[in-house]
Amino acid sequence: MHRSYLRSALAVALWSASQAHAADLSTIVVTASRQAQHAPDVLGDVNILTREYLDKAGQSTLSEVLARQPGLQMSANGGPGAQTGIFIRGAEARHTLVLVDGLRINSATTGQSALENIPLADIERVEILRGPASSLYGADALGGVIQIFTRRGEGAPRFDAFAAKGSFNTQQAEAGLRGSLNALSYSLRIGTYDTDGISSASNAAKLPLSYNRDRDGFSQRHFSGSLNYRLEGRDEIGLSLLKADGVNQYDAGSGNFNDRIDKTTASYQLFLRNHLGKDWTSLMRLGRSLDEGNAINATNTSRFRTVQKHFHWQNDVMLPLGIALLAYEHNEQKVSSTTIYLVNERNIDSYLLGWSANLGSHRLQLNSRHDRNSQFGRQTTGQIGYGYQLSTAWRIKTAVGTAFNAPTFNQLYWPHDRFGGGNPRLQPEMARNAEVGLDWEQEGQKLGLTLFRNRVQNLISGWPPANVNRAKLDGATLAYAVSFISWQLNASLDLLEARDEATHKRLPRRAEQQLQLSLGRDVGLWHLGAEWSDVGRRYDDTVNRRPMAGYSVLNAYARYRLGPELSLELRANNITDRKYETAYGYGTPGVNLFVGLRYAMR
């Protein structure tokens, strides 16, 4: 099975390579080292989703876009707005750290972030770092990092707007204004999204009749903005914010009552960037993030709220050989709920050291981070990366490192009642990772192969939760992208073995194979595209007694330029009306259509 997938992906890659044209090697990456790097110098396993890519992706939610990226798998408890988990290289969903403009937004109660509540319209770009990154970002980054950069303004004032309507009575509208005036740059966006949705309870599930199988809708209002002021020289001060309020209906056995979750995701920050010398740049960031959910059913309301206060100070110093990173972070986490937590806050102080250098054909990166957690004491993690430019087109890279993840407040203390709840004796999960990658980039095309081996100790599982398991996460990712003439092709193949080493059972909701293909073409005033996902069979439980079948989904989209600044967009998802599940018992949308009108001032 693995070999046939690999042969197919390689055949596609080699055929496309012979057709390719020019490449842009000037892409800048930040997340892989916390410092700006040219893409060919990056040693981490990274891919970048630009605003242009997001506009052409033919999707309306961030979760849908992420589900089609190399090395990522997704599960959702229903349709739009439902709780979504992203597994990077087979790690737990709570092992994925999500940052918005550098601030972490993961919930301290569940460990996950509400990716389903982050509006795609407010995003300028997304950087995905696959593999453990605790030596850079501390806890929550045991599997990888997804960093979201919101819109920024520059140049002459530009206005854009988008309005769309589709199946399930879906309606979307958004508008934005951005630009600059002398030393001041600005960006402002607002938007709405409403849909009647689908039933979150799948027809395939053996659920009690008390579960209401009506449609479960999602409604969202979002707002984002930024102001940057350029001081003397290259110094600048700025602020940014993102806030999204969503209401997601779901089925929880309350009869005809429309159970729902009111969600709020927010990030606010003020930053100051100073060039303290020719070779020394200082960045200070003061911020606050919020993750809140109120679950409302026929009998009660449950509230979970995480507030995080952040202070970051990073210094980048050019040395005679390479560049150094020295940073300090202070993070205060506080949770509140309708249930009682024995402990409801903790502080984390972190100290970072890093060094990276390009020495001829050699690339080096060293990172170390020391976290002092008020609950769990001290944890030190590190990573060593090395790369070698074999030729102008070929390069090889490798990295080894350690990572950890602190237990969530839910795992420790929830629910606190007479029946017992969490386990306050839990210890952090620890991981050791090794990977090697081979990249080829030339003439408008890029081919990458990454092999990885991650061992997680003290894996938290079961309920009440306990540090009982060891997990092995072994696999390979083959990814290819090319632009030739008027065609664009992206292909990726993931092979994964994610198992509990004690029981030898596969970890839930993770497929052993996943193949993604997308093909786009510009034809006159049209841009046409299609994407195909093929995901292998999975299990929904730790004992592997509840299987979920594999599935394939085909989508298509088109854009027609009505004028220099106006375009018509069409999208058809799940064209074959495939019935499938990403989480046992939860529905997924059948065939659905979407049409929209986009205006973008040039």
Account of the protein in words:
By secondary structure, the chain is mostly beta strands. It has a single domain (2-600), classed as TonB-dependent receptor, beta-barrel domain (Maltoporin, Chain A). The protein contains 5 helices and 33 strands. It has a 22-stranded antiparallel beta barrel. The termini are far apart.
Layout of helices and strands, plus pairs?
Elements: H1 2-17, E1 28-29, E2 37-38, E3 45-50, H2 51-56, H3 62-66, E4 72-76, E5 84-88, E6 96-100, E7 103-104, E8 123-130, H4 134-137, E9 144-150, E10 158-166, E11 170-181, E12 184-198, E13 216-230, E14 236-250, E15 259-277, E16 280-296, E17 301-318, E18 323-337, E19 345-359, E20 362-373, E21 377-389, E22 394-405, H5 409-413, E23 429-442, E24 445-461, E25 466-484, E26 487-500, E27 513-523, E28 526-535, E29 538-539, E30 547-548, E31 551-561, E32 566-573, E33 592-600
Parallel strand pairs: 6-9
Antiparallel strand pairs: 1-2, 3-8, 4-5, 6-7, 8-9, 10-11, 10-33, 11-12, 12-13, 13-14, 14-15, 15-16, 16-17, 17-18, 18-19, 19-20, 20-21, 21-22, 22-23, 23-24, 24-25, 25-26, 26-27, 27-28, 28-31, 29-30, 31-32, 32-33
